[in-house]
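Appendix C: a fully annotated inverse folding record. The material below is reproduced so that readers can follow the format used throughout the book. The structure is listed first as tokens, followed by the designed sequence.
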């Protein structure tokens, strides 16, 4: 849960506006920044268009057996399940029996016709998410060797496509076996506390940090260990002639790519009404363009509970000689965001909090982790249900946790609509990560892809470098570091440089360059602030309060453990009986049964600590269903106490 205390100063706006008082409804000047490059949206091949390749896919173990139907987007685990090749991964103790899947190579293929593409000047093949190590070939030609599930991969395929029987072939290499190779090449094991390598048959080898994949896949206290492979986001063909719109970004500069010299017209529509027409004479190539326009008395976007999260529909149309070449639409909001970290008057602390449109916000919400271990199964409907439920519970912020993923476009669209602010972690969590020139380039490309994709969402109010790396490494309090003891002084100094490069150079640099200083950046959560370390963490920055739970402090301690901003805390409970009946066989519905144990991510102390908290407040009689219920009462009392204390 997230709570507000202080305030701070980094301005952020989507469709940024210039005004002395953001609460006054007077004439404001809005700058629309247009990226006119080389891609578009849509479901058909038109003047400039897109069609998804989501039909006719097959898969098999590499070089073995018959081809079986596959889903794209999807994962190998869900494809095996759909074809009856494995049991339900979540039922009983299936987890331990399915660890072979991530040590195997797999291949996917499809064939498609594209006769309509011959008339287009430009055709591009786009993979929005490849998980993870894959060789991608079109008609036998190698397009990509991938190794990062968070990047977008694009290829010019105009010269490779045929009218009929194009074959797209993707070979996935085992992420675990490649991770072992990466670890050996790096020369040392790295701390990865949550990685359940032993469950995966890897002994002491924890390879999660050597691959740019979601950390939770390798096992976490909140997730099973299923290290997936697959085309987890859409694959699409994009085609256009002469020029096209790539993105319409608010509060930045504009770029136009033209294939031929000539006169071009740009039209901008706001809520369906034309508000600007600009004629440009351009040579072939890429051009920077900025076209400001004004909106009288703009309606502002506000978080849930503060006002209406109003959204504008902006369309950009690109024309030449009266012909429409392309158009794109963006739904965006007008708002500013400031992260305020102001020193206390007595010098004994520093605040941490947000202002939206110049107004301090009391942040109420939750951390948001992947809604399914297999990401492609998360539907738009399920995403809306979760975000709407948060709004109905009077939340106004969700923190997308760094051990998960950069969420789908659906998630951020729903947060825009329901007024839910998003604190977005970059996907680094709890561990030490390797560094090299090649790794840094890959991380930079990952950050650019995702910051560019998400920057138009008014709900996005913070980029955070990582989850819980600084608090464990303690670069400014080396004697109390939990991790340094595992490394030589030379290795520790190397990790200081790696962390500095990633979290103080690459990531904030990308946020600043692509967002123009409009979105705040916080280097690590929790943290008192870069360069600071303090014994009194409750008075500085943000805090993850796990003293209740991990340290065993009583629930009543929430009443005195008051921080400037609590960005994590919680108590575990069992699910209700009707849920347990869906994934635990009837004969194992008891505490500590093999199936119940396999579903406890925190195997060292999870059940024992949970029952310890239950026993402090309630009497148990050994009845299984009653124990489940009492754990929920304990959790509810803990959450109530923490919320009311703040």
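Designed amino acids, in order:
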């Amino acid at each position: 849960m997230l709570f507000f205390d202080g305030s701070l100063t980094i301005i952020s706006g989507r469709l940024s506006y210039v005004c002395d008082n953001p609460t006054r409804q007077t004439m404001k000047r809005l700058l629309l920044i247009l990226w006119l490059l080389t891609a578009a949206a849509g479901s058909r091949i038109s003047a400039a268009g897109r069609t998804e390749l989501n039909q006719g896919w097959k898969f098999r173990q590499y070089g073995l057996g018959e081809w079986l139907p596959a889903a794209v987007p999807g994962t190998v685990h869900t494809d095996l399940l759909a074809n009856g090749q494995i049991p339900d991964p979540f039922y009983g103790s299936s987890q331990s029996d399915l660890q072979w899947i991530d040590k195997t190579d797999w291949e996917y293929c499809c064939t498609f016709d594209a006769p309509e593409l011959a008339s287009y000047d430009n055709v591009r093949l786009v993979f929005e998410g490849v998980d993870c190590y894959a060789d991608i070939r079109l008609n036998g030609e190698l397009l990509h060797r991938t190794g990062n599930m968070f990047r977008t991969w694009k290829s010019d395929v105009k010269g490779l496509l045929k009218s009929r029987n194009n074959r797209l072939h993707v070979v996935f290499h085992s992420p675990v076996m490649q991770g072992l190779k990466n670890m050996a090449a790096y020369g040392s094991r790295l701390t990865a506390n949550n990685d359940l390598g032993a469950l995966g048959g890897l002994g002491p080898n924890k390879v999660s940090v050597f691959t740019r994949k979601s950390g939770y896949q390798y096992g976490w206290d909140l997730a099973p260990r299923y290290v997936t492979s697959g085309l987890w986001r859409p694959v699409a063909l994009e085609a256009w002639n002469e020029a096209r719109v790539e993105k319409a970004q608010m509060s930045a500069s504009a770029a136009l790519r033209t294939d031929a010299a000539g006169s071009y017209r740009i039209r901008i529509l706001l809520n369906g009404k034309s508000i600007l027409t600009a004629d440009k004479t351009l040579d072939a190539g890429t051009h920077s363009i900025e076209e400001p326009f004004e909106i009288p008395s703009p309606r502002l976007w506000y978080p849930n509970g503060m006002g209406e999260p109003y959204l504008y529909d902006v369309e950009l149309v690109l024309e030449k000689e009266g012909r429409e070449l392309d158009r794109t639409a963006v739904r965006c909001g007008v708002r500013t965001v400031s992260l305020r970290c102001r020193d206390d008057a007595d010098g004994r602390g520093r605040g941490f909090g947000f202002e939206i449109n110049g107004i301090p916000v009391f942040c109420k919400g939750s951390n948001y982790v992947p809604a399914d271990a297999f990401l492609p199964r998360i539907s738009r409907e399920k995403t809306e249900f979760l975000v709407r439920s948060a709004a109905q519970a009077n939340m106004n912020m969700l923190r997308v946790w760094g051990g998960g993923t950069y969420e789908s476009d659906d998630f951020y669209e729903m947060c825009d609509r329901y007024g839910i602010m998003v604190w977005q972690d970059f996907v680094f969590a709890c561990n030490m990560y390797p560094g090299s020139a090649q790794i840094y380039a890959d991380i930079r490309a990952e950050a650019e892809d995702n910051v560019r994709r998400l920057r138009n969402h008014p709900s996005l109010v913070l980029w955070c470098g990582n989850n819980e790396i600084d608090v464990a490494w303690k670069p400014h309090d080396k004697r109390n570091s939990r991790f340094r003891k595992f490394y030589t002084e030379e290795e520790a100094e190397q990790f200081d440089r790696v962390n500095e490069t990633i979290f103080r150079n690459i990531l904030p640099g990308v946020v600043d360059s692509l967002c123009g200083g409009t979105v705040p950046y916080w280097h690590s959560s929790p943290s008192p602030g870069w360069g600071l370390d303090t014994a009194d963490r409750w008075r500085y920055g943000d805090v993850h309060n796990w003293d209740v739970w991990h340290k065993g402090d009583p629930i009543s301690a929430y009443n005195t453990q008051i921080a400037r901003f609590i960005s994590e805390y919680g108590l575990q409970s069992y699910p209700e009986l009707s849920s347990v009946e869906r994934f635990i066989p009837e004969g194992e519905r008891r505490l500590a049964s093999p199936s119940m144990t396999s579903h406890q991510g925190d195997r060292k102390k999870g059940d024992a600590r949970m029952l310890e908290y239950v026993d402090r407040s309630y009497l148990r009689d050994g009845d299984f269903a009653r124990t489940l219920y009492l754990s929920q009462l304990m959790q509810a009392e803990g959450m109530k106490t923490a919320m009311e204390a703040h």
